[in-house]
Amino acid sequence: MLKPSLSYRIKHVPLRAGLALAMSLAAIAGAPPAAAQSFPSHTVTLVVPFPPGGGTDTGARILAQELGKRWGQSVIVENKGGAAGLIGATLVAQARPDGYTLLLGNIGTQSINPSLYSKMPYDPDKAFAPVSLLAELPLAVMINPAKLPQVKTIGDFIRYAKSHQGQLSYGSSGAGGGPHLATEMFKDQAGLNIQHIPYRGGGPAVSALLAGDVQLTMMTVLEASGHIKAGDMLALAVTGARRVAALPDVPTLSESVLPGFNSISWIGLLAPAGTPAAIVDKISTDMRAIVADKDFAAHIAALGGVPRADTPQEFARMIADDRGRYAQIIRSHNIKVE
To answer: Suppose 127 and one of 58, 93, 170, 285 were both cysteines; which one would form an S-S bond, judging by CB atoms 3.0 to 4.6 Å apart?
Structure first.
């Protein structure tokens, strides 16, 4: 004999008991899983896949402090640098998917490395659950004004470079990095022939520009601000779609010489794949609340970033879009890493 359905049984219990049962079922259906309700109950580790001091590390430490306040738990930052972010990213990809080990990745780890490396220690399409973007990090197009006194604007530089095709060089923080690919995009759209000199990190690339060994480099506004204030570098343009609050007088490439140009770096939070959706959504919601705070947003903006948080779904689409765009550049220029 068939058992009566749940709806049948509810209809045939006493009214008071039926109401109590219905309310209980509704409460269960509307309540978040217990794991999300109690998360976090102990220390959370935020892995930065780069050495201390860069833009990603700076963003991680600011975020960790704010999440710690909101959660009432310690959020510690661990730097696991090496192999263009692969070491730290692999550590998180293999971590227990419970929300207690998170990755502050960037455009390199999530959107560039999958096309740059023929073999990776994890499946980039399946290893992570995107949580939220934290900030966009526009790049600044930088020169040494003492070495190029005739260049005052990005238009001046393009004209100078065109009259010296094949004779100039630019430095980057390494082959396949965001500044390298953004500069190749700039060269393509401006019709320039400038030799690429890759260095082992942003510091050596800066030293090369100051010494006059290269004529141009791109770096995040965060990294450039100190040199601009010191007067030993000049920012000709920024690479994002909008001007940067930290450099309000510096135009974008798009508004000045290359309409539609937009190439930025960014940093964002990811969890290991398999982390419960309720925990991912809770962290994402908390990040959006943090980024919406005026003081936090002002702090990020003062450092040269553009504070921006989004949903896990929006962040996943951004990663995929950037991956397709940079894959095309890597293929067309036959960019390889050793």
So the answer is: 93
- Determine the Cα–Cα distance for residues 302 and 235; give it in Å rounded to an integer: 16
Q: Is the pLDDT of residue 53 over 80?
A: no
Any idea which residue has 């609340």 for tokens? 289
Q: DSSP letter for 39, please.
A: -
Kindly give the pairing relationship between strand 128-143 and strand 306-307. Answer: antiparallel
Contact 84, 47 (CB under 8 A): no
> Cis before residue 4, ω within 30 degrees of 0?
no
User: What is the rounded (10 degree) CA torsion for 302, 153, 322, 244?
Assistant: 20
Non-local (6+) Cβ contacts of 120 within 8 A are 86, 113, 114
For the chain, give the mean pLDDT.
89
Euclidean distance between CA atoms 20 and 179, whole angstroms: 62
The distance between the two most distant Cα atoms of the chain, rounded to a whole number of Å, is: 93
Four-residue CA torsion sign, 327, 195, 84, 312? negative
Question: pLDDT per residue over 173-185, tens digit each?
Answer: 888 989 999 999 9
Q: Report strand pairing: 75-79 vs 101-106.
A: unpaired
Q: Three-class SS of residue 185?
A: helix
How would you label 301-313 residue by residue, b for 16+ Cβ within 10 Å and e otherwise?
A: bebbbbbbbbbbe
Q: How many CA atoms lie within 13 A of 187 on its CB side?
A: 22
Q: What is the pTM of this model?
A: 0.81
Nearest to 41 by CA among 78, 77, 71: 71
pLDDT average, residue stretch 99-123: 94
> What pLDDT score was predicted for residue 2?
40
- DSSP type of residue 244: B
